[in-house]
Design a protein that fits this description.
By secondary structure, this protein is of the alpha+beta class. 16% of the residues lie in helices and 43% in strands. The strands form 2 sheets. Strands 5-6-7-8-9 form a 5-stranded antiparallel sheet, with no helix packed on it. The chain has a 4-stranded antiparallel sheet with strand order 1-2-3-4. A hairpin with a 2-residue loop joins β1 and β2.
Length: 170
């Protein structure tokens, strides 16, 4: 049998071997491609859907996006740490890509736990939560006849209410 000291040294070397991972194993591009993707999928009214939101660090945004004056998801007039670069929604076999105007100012997306899909008659509502505290928001996207028609933002107002403060037709 091994002595207690030999067992401790063996366990230490084993842990060191597990914890030591050279940087060359994962290519940075592969990490970026899967990093920042939030996805939920399931059925709404017995029809399959797939809702995806992809975000990147603010520093990786194109320069024209970095000049955005006001961002949802942050307090005051600072830039977010993360910003959305793509939103897609697939219902049945129809893919709906969102235009930049639908998410241009959305920062700090909340991940899959902040995403939901609801059916209201002919409309499908996609909810996307982001930010936290005073900078938190819920973006509500309305889809009708397989087309994105509207985006509303629900956020805290100066009087402390959490309500819709902005709506854009798309």
């Amino acid at each position: 049998m091994f002595s207690q000291r030999a067992q401790i040294i063996t366990a230490g070397l084993f842990l060191l071997a597990i914890l030591y991972v050279p940087h060359s194993i994962a290519a940075p591009d592969a990490i970026r491609e899967s990093w920042g993707t939030s996805r939920i999928h399931g059925k709404v009214d017995n029809i399959r859907y797939d809702f995806r939101v992809i975000s990147v660090p603010f520093t990786e945004l194109p320069n024209e996006r970095k000049s955005q004056k006001s961002w949802k998801g942050v307090d005051s007039h600072r830039s977010p740490e993360f910003a959305i670069i793509t939103i897609t929604f697939k219902i049945s076999d129809t893919l709906i890509k969102f235009p930049l105007s639908a998410f241009r100012d959305l920062g700090e997306p909340g991940g899959p736990y902040g995403m939901s899909v609801e059916s209201h008659g002919k409309q499908i509502l996609l909810n996307l939560k982001g930010g936290d505290g005073g900078g938190s928001y819920t973006a509500i996207f309305i889809i009708e006849n397989s087309k994105l028609i509207e985006r509303s933002i629900k956020e805290f107002t100066s009087d402390g209410d959490y309500k819709i403060t902005e709506t854009i037709k798309l």
